[in-house]
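Record type: ASSEMBLY
Status: queued
Input:
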Amino acid sequence: MNVLEHWIGGLSTPSIDGGTRTGVAPATGGEGATVTQGTPADVDRAVLAAHAARHGWRHIASMERGRILGRVATGIRNAIDELTELEVADTGKPIELARAEIQGAADYFEFYAALVHLPAGDVLDVRPDLHVYTLREPLGVIGVITPWNLPINQAARACAPALAAGNTVVAKPAETTSQTTIALARIASEAGLPDGVFNVVLGRGAVVGTAIVEHPLVRKVAFTGSVPTGQQIGRIAADRILPLTLELGGKSANIVFADADLAFAATEAARAFATNAGQVCSSGTRLLVQRGIEEEFTTLVVEATQAYRPGETLGPMITRSQFETVQEYFEVAAAEGAVLRTGGSVSTDPSLKGGFFVEPTVYSGVDNRMRIAREEVFGPVLVVIPFDTEEEAIALANDSDFGLVGGVFSADISRAFRVAEAFEAGQVYINSWSTQSVQMPFGGHKASGYGREKGIEALAHYSHLKSVSVRITPGRWAR
Ligand code: NAD
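Status: finished
Output:
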């Protein structure tokens, strides 16, 4: 039996106590990958390897650091067929979607490879007898903990800027989707990343994840996942004064005004909630539609939703527990009186039997106070909520515990700008949904988390800023 092992110090490494876990293939319900299960002792080995490697990596010439990270990007692109196969096996998602995510992972390394050449600080004009400058310095060992929805992409999103800023990494992928993060570490080693700079420990969150957050040599944790886990990590971090980036959940609103290009907006509204079967933190799962076009637009969205066919263009729920959670929300919505417009059940296609497939689902007649409008389902489930005025739309959009993304569709560009400004959300899209890119900083307001990934700004979250003041003897001409 092939057992997927940790990647520590540049080598595939078994667990100290040798436990394994065999997963479930979400597309079929059959047997998935068998993965070694780490313990705090494995985390300790990985952190010590990362700690030992940190000076060497930090002091490598930036030109060389950039070249290595650039080769990681090339390595990812060259291995796209292998990585796609692994990602599809772990997640069941459509091949084209997996390929796009892997290209995105390569983009992260390409982008941050170039950013190693940014100035490492500023010179400050203070006094003639002082030379004052700032210096960006790496933090040391970074713990990177990621979820199962976009496995290699989320790992690359945090690891690329962390490495570019001169840190070393101990990553922990979700226990159900570990294969591509291990492949990424191997590709990085093959690209010339020195041993110990990028380590991966596999296993359960409560064991391996907790051990990473608690390890005294870990100097920052970048966490992507659910709110309850983010809160648990935050409690440990508070005791350790450990900096965190928390990328958590969302219940993002998409506002459609009557003057919008309705046909295009409907296609985008369907894409917003059905991409990756809704297992995306930035899914647009609350559709706020202006009264007057509500019925016409809901019909258009339901039609556009037919493009997402389970087993073809719509993947399964990636874990059994998520499959069960989505079915529970079908019951919640029914009990709350939401009007089912399409979907609302698991897929009945006999060829998909055993897989964790659900139908893309749209509810209308929803009130923003209902649970189905407030809680993150993390599945392909959309609620349609009507509004009358711009003010009401903004109030409804912001009446949420979350604040990750907002969307607004309108032909009135002044109004679209006003709404974009009023959104309590880290990123807003006008007349499109989720045209994200590596250049755009990404992160949340409220329960969606804090800190920023992506963009130049992420580098600040993976470095200290040191100020240095040097007293100099003024020249005679300065007296
Ligand atoms: P999760 O919180 O259950 O798990 C995320 C990771 O944390 C996994 O690797 C898990 O093993 C680990 N973990 C679990 N318990 C832990 C603990 N006590 N200590 C340390 N680590 C622990 O989340 P999930 O169900 O895998 O992912 C879905 C969630 O992730 C959704 O809420 C989604 O919105 C969110 N998400 C957010 C973003 C973003 O960028 N904001 C991106 C993707 C997913």
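Annotation: The radius of gyration is 24 Å.
Annotation: DSSP finds 15 helices and 23 strands in the chain.
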